[in-house]
Amino acid sequence: MLSSGGYSAASRSAVAGALLLVASFAVASCGGEGDKTDAPNGKVTVVYEDDTVKPADRRAVAVIRRSRVLERVAGWLNTSIALPYDLVVKVTGEVPPGVTDAVTQPDGRTVYVPPPFLTQIQGVLGKVVRTVERPALLPPSSYNVDDLTALSTQFVFGHEVGHALLRQLLLANLGLEEDAADGFASFYTVNEVGPGPSLAAALLFDELAREEGRLTLEGFSSDHPVTQQRVFTFLCHLEGSDPKKYYEPLVGPGYLPKTRAPLCPQAWAMLDYGWWTQLRPHFSGAFKEQGDRTQEKAHERLIAETKALAEKLDEIRTGQ
Ligand SMILES: [Zn+2]
How large is the average pLDDT for residues 240-266? Predict the structure, then answer.
């Protein structure tokens, strides 16, 4: 789930959300593992159920469909990862009860993308392009509602794919699952797409955080980190992936605080190594050689960045 408290329509209680998850697990466990085949050959497909889309949501759905951002992530998974089960991504108005934003079912085999959620993203980003100055890293040609909607949806969908991978592959997770899902969105988009999705998602979530206003106990008790915190983490991972390229445009204008930035190269190296390492046993035959090499490079980079951080640590701590 993208967020349990970010939208007015999604202000149901965290407790109710937790109960739903438990209920879904109980149902899933009845199905057992009987349909798991020996050779993992799950495929990712994207389905647009056009006849379920209301007129008010057709524009947002058309933007996403034309951009092919969902198909791009699906294509990367199909080429690189041997999934045990199929994953169906449904852009549909027919969602399980209570679903208002993008969600991944507990078994990791279905992602729902409700069209009103895409319209909502488009609405929020409409306000962003009217009221927020364009960050220098985004070219003028992409600082418009439709492009930002496609880019941020690519990040949001990356988040859902993170959930799907964790659930299908039963990946060992060492923190909040929602953090891990955000981490996959950064890992995938920074490595495979570029800075656009992280920047668009940061703009989207920053505006959402403003609209949320004062944090409530519900916000703090969410299974997600609080919204504004997620913005800084998206930017930190982007900056850390290539400080030479991103430090000035992100830290200079104050998007990413100077106190956080020195930690980001090691944080990115840890995230990048973490995902490559978790995915390595599940690489497809076609991707194995390239994937193994990339994982080994990520390992070397983590060691180097950790050493570099240790050398700068006294300076960083006294500067904070
Ligand atoms: Zn989530």
Answer: 96
71: buried, middle or exposed (CB in 10 Å: 19+, 13-18, 0-12)? middle
49 CA distance to ligand 1 middle (Å): 23
CA of 308 to the centre of ligand 1 (A): 32
| 224 backbone dihedrals φ, ψ, rounded to 5° | -100, 150
| Domain encompassing residue 292 | 8-21+38-319
pLDDT of 34 over the 50 cut = no
Calculate how far, in angstroms, residue 313's C-alpha sits from the geometric centre of ligand 1: 33
**Which bin fits 170, alpha (ψ -120 to 50), beta or left (φ > 0)?**
left
Domains in the chain: how many in total?
1
pLDDT band of residue 285 (cuts 50, 70, 90) is very high
Centroid of ligand 1 to alpha carbon of 35 (angstroms): 26
Q: What is residue 14's predicted lDDT score, i.e. its pLDDT?
A: 40
- Mean pLDDT, range 24-43, rounded to an integer: 53
Distance 101 CA to ligand 1 centre (A): 10
